[in-house]
Design goal:
four-stranded mixed sheet; 4 helices; about 20% strand; GIY-YIG endonuclease; alpha+beta
Length: about 120
């Protein structure tokens, strides 16, 4: 097998990092949470949308533009591990539960959330 085919096969077999991340404002007590099966890709996409001015959460976008990117922290809160059962491919329920757990946990810490729809 040539090197290019080998690398393609290796890439297809890679499993992306799953879990939940937060975009937290340093200015106020607000945050945006997102559970996803592809942390790196979605975090990069979130940064690009915020920098480009077209993030779907309008409240977050408005404050990003007002306060600037240096006043926000984007970090992974928790990774979700893959099951030992290799046949499992859908982790949407687990990610939804993870999102609810973190929303509840942060609410108890008096963290406010950017409204989902405005």
């Amino acid at each position: 097998m040539n090197r290019k085919k080998e690398l393609k096969l290796q890439y297809k077999q890679m499993k992306p990092q799953m879990g939940i991340f937060i975009v937290r404002s340093k200015v106020n007590n607000k945050c945006f949470l997102k559970a996803t099966p592809d942390l790196r890709g979605v975090i990069n996409g979130t940064r690009a949308r915020l920098k480009g001015g077209f993030h779907p959460n309008k409240e977050l976008q408005k404050e990003w533009e007002k306060y600037g990117p240096d006043n926000f922290v984007i970090e992974i809160l928790e990774n979700l591990e893959y099951d030992k059962d290799e046949s499992k491919t859908d982790y949407s329920e687990e990610l939804e539960v993870l999102q609810m757990i973190w929303e509840e946990k942060l609410s108890r810490e008096n963290m406010l959330f950017y409204k989902k729809k405005i």
